[in-house]
Automatic annotation (TrEMBL):
This is Probable butyrate kinase. Its main location: cytoplasm. It catalyses: butanoate + ATP = butanoyl phosphate + ADP. Belongs to the acetokinase family.
Length: 357
């Protein structure tokens, strides 16, 4: 069973072809940043990215009709249960016109649905908006604002299952704190297979290579009403141009860690990020009432063991720490579609999506 996997990021689109759960080929289709900057809205990039994907399929010697399904990264949908969902016209409409957060992942299902043209099923698995939060976690302190579960759910859920396997247990039998360290950072608490609290990786938690995370709210208000910045400039300051890139001019953590070897300011920034991640992990351990079977560090930055050590020295007393560097999103998407194609799981439908766990 051939599966085409589509996973758009801010400047590239990852594509892969799987035969069952075996990866045949994976490529990162780089898009010229100047080309992307011409578009005001991420959705306007649909045709450019779609063409790149179709060209990739042809270059690899395949036709769309050869595939049993297209598996796409799920975007910022309404809160929904973990699992695999069938992409429908209504879902595409939501991602195009109604989603509250502009994010590259919103493009995946839109493009997949258009490419399939109704000829093969299109699925998403564990989108960014998987929501299994306990009710206490939703209150922000003002009734007008609810906390939202937006995290790297796809990789985090896949990694949770791998670590559980390593421990000889089921994900549903364990309590874990899992931190995904990428361009954005998600720190999540898992109680017996449910992700019961997360820092919204766009707005909360530690600062990251390109995001501020949580900020002192009074100062944010002063900045917003200073008259010096437009709404878009302020948004970019928080997501895209905040965090490490604001201090050091790079969102590449490899570069930042190199700079930190020679430069005091860079060292402080790198150490502060590790400190803030550790603080968030500690908070999630308390959410689990201290009963934590594993703390897991994953994502691109976890490739740097020295950085992981900086976090570990704060949290090692809470639970055994596992380092699972990189991300396994393409594999998780292919497996999600495969479970449905094999009849092991029934694809959830749009109507069910508004029911949270
Ligand atoms: N070997 C490495 N050491 C440190 N940081 C790394 C390494 N490899 C990738 N990164 C960093 O990981 C971040 C991207 O993480 P990734 O999980 O791929 O992104 P995302 O999940 O946000 O798409 C970037 O800041 C990148 O510089
Ligand atoms: C909003 C959570 C998901 C996320 O941050 O994804 P990226 O790191 O790929 O932007």
């Amino acid at each position: 069973m051939l599966i085409l996997v589509i996973n758009p990021g801010s400047t590239s689109t990852k594509v892969a072809i799987f035969d069952g759960d075996k990866k045949i080929v994976q490529k990162s289709l780089r898009h010229d940043i100047k080309e992307l900057e011409k578009f005001d809205d991420i959705m306007e990039q649909e045709e450019l990215r779609k063409k790149a994907i179709i060209d990739f399929v042809k270059e690899e010697g395949y036709d769309i009709a050869d595939f049993s399904a297209i598996a796409c990264r799920g975007g910022i949908l309404p809160p929904l249960q973990s699992g695999t969902y069938e992409v429908t016209a209504e879902m595409v409409d939501y991602l195009k016109f109604k989603t509250p957060v502009k994010h590259a992942s919103n493009l995946a299902a839109v493009i997949g649905y258009s490419i399939s043209n109704g000829s093969i099923p299109v699925f998403i698995t564990d989108p960014v908006s998987v929501d299994e939060m306990v009710e206490e976690a939703r209150l922000s302190g003002i009734p007008e604002i609810s906390r939202r579960s937006l995290a790297h759910a796809l990789n985090i859920k896949a990694v949770a299952r791998e670590v559980a396997k390593e421990l000889g247990k089921k994900y549903e039998d364990l309590n874990m704190v899992i931190a995904h360290l990428g361009g954005g950072i998600s720190v999540t608490a898992h109680e017996k297979g449910k992700m019961i609290d997360v820092n919204n990786a766009n707005d909360e938690g530690p600062f990251s290579p390109e995001r501020t995370g949580e900020l002192p709210v009074g100062d944010v208000i002063r900045l917003c009403f200073s008259g010096k910045f437009t709404r878009n400039e302020i948004k970019k300051m928080f997501v895209g141009k905040g965090g490490v890139v604001a201090y050091l001019g790079t969102n590449n953590m490899q570069e930042a860690i190199e700079m930190a070897k020679k430069d005091e300011k860079a060292k402080l920034v790198v150490d502060a990020m590790a400190y803030q991640i550790a603080k968030e992990i500690g908070g999630m351990c308390s959410v689990l009432k201290g009963k934590v079977d594993a703390i897991v560090i994953t994502g691109g930055i976890a490739h740097n063991t020295k950085f992981v050590e900086k976090i570990k020295c704060y949290v090692y007393k809470f639970a055994p720490v596992f380092n699972v560097p990189g991300e396994f999103e393409m594999e998780a998407l292919a497996k999600g579609a495969l479970r449905v194609l094999k009849g092991e799981e029934t694809a959830k439908k749009w109507g069910e999506m508004y029911e949270t766990a």
